[in-house]
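Pair request: fold both.
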Amino acid sequence: MNSGLAVRLKITLDDVTPQVMWRVEVPLSIRLDRLHLVMQAAMGWENYHLWEFRVQGVGFGPPDPDDGFPGPLNAAKATLRLVLEDTGAKTLKYLYDFGDGWEHTVKVERILDATPGLDLPILIAAHGACPPEDVGGPPGYDEFRAAVADPKHERHEEMLEWRGPDFSADDPDLDRINADLATLAKRWARKPTARRSAKR
C-alpha cells in the first residue's frame, strides 16, 4: 500500500522491562483499523481482544452496535492523516486487551515521501520481544519472566509448558515481524484494474 506519503512511527509498549519498541513505516492515509492490524503483526498477538486508539481523549475502535452504550468512533472510517490533521496530535495511545491492559505509545517521528515500488507497512527497527498474549499484563509479564528464569520458582515448569522454553525477552523475532507485515502489504497493495475487451 503506497499512497505518496508515509509516516514513520515509533511504537513503545508501556510499563514493561526490558523495553519493547518498534519503528514502522505505514502510509499516512492508513485507516486506523488497519493500523491496529500493523500493531498486531508487530506484536505477534492473535487479535482476539478488544482494542482502541486514543487521541486527545477521543477513542477509535471497532464499533459495537449491540451494547447499547456509546463506544469509540469507527476506526474503519478514520485515517491516520485526518486524525493527525484534526487534532494536531503527534502521539497516540493504543490499548489492547482491556483485561490485561496493554498500553502502547505511538509517536509520529516523521512524515516522508513513500519509496516508489515499496509496499507498506514495513519494519524499520525492533527492540525486545513482545510479551506472550494473555500473560496478565505488565505484572503478569514480570512474574512470567521471573518464573522462566528461575528453575526453583514454583511456576517454572507451568510457564515453560505454557509458553515453551524458547522465549527470549531480548529477541523481537524480526523474521516473523517482517513476514507478517509483508503479508499485510501484499493484501493491501492496489490491484491494477483489468482492461475490458472491446465488444465485437
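--- second member of the pair ---
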Amino acid sequence: MFNPEQFINESIQTLQETIKGRALIAFSGGVDSTVCAALVNKAIGDRLIAVHVDTGFMRKHEAEQVKNIMESMGLNHRFIDASKEYFSALQNVTDPEEKRRIIGKKFIDIFERVAQTEKLTYLVQGTIAPDWIESGGELRDTIKSHHNVGGLPDKMKLKLIEPLRDLYKDEVRKLARSLRLSISERQPFPGPGLAIRILGEATKDRTEIVREACYIVEQEIEKASEQGKMTLPWQYFAVLLPVKSVGVHGDKRAYGDVIAVRAVESIDAMTCAFSNIPSDVIDIISNRITNTLGDSVNRVVYDVTNKPPGTIEWE
C-alpha cells in the first residue's frame, strides 16, 4: 500500500543528501512537475529554481495559470518564452517521434543555458513510470518517446534527478493531496503540448486551431460535469487531423479540416477506456467548434478507442 506521507519524508531526506548545489526544475504546472517542485523546494529551498518554458504549444491561458501556480507556491522561478525557437525547430517536421525528440532536446538546450547563467548543477524532472516504460529501452518496445526520456541527449551537462520515477499517476495525485496542492486533480497534459495534438506539421496557424478546439472541449465537458450530466473524465481534449473533408459553409461547398474529440477514463495512464459523453454535450461541442472555427474546420468526430489498442494521445 502506497503511503504518501512516508514517501514525502523519505524523498525530502534523500534529496537533501543528494543535491549539494543549486538545482533547476522543469516546471510545466502539471501534477507531476508541481509535486516534484514541492518536494525539492521543501528539501533545498531557494537553491531550487523552477523554470517554465512557453513552447508556443500551451493551452489557452496556460502561461498565466502556470505563473500563478509558481507564485502561490513561493517558488524561486523563471519564465521563458521560447515559442519562436520551437516553431522554427519543428518546421516541416511531421513524424511524431521526431517531434518528440526535437522538443525534448530543445528543452535541454534551454535548461543548460539557464544553468550556465545561474550556475546550476542539477536538473530535476517530474518523470513518472509510464514515461520511461512507454519510451522503451532494454527489452521494452518504444510506444512513444516521452520528451523527458527519449528526448534527452546522450551526454548532458546537468546531473539528472527524478524523485517520482517509480510512481504512477494515481500515486502522484495522492502526494499532491497530501501536500495540499491545488493541481492535485488537474487533467494530464503532455510535455510536448499541442504539438502532438496536431497530426502533421505543427505550424503556428494549425496550433491556433487546435488550441481553440481544446479550449472548447475543456469548457463544455467541465460545464456538463458541474451540471451533473456526466462525470469528469481523466483526460479530454481535441486533435487536429491531417485530412480535409467536404462540407457546406452557408450555401457553398467547403473543404475543411477535421477535429477529433478525445475523452478517456483511466487510473494510471497505462490503460484507458473512452468516456461516454452524452450526445447533447457532443452536439454542443461540435457546434461550438464549427461555428468558432468555421473558416477552417467543417467536421468533428468522436474517438471511441480504448488503450490498448490506441494510446491516450494520438501521437
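Observation on the second member. Strands lie at 23-26, 48-54, 77-81, 122-124, 159-161, 235-249, 252-265, 273-274, 297-302.
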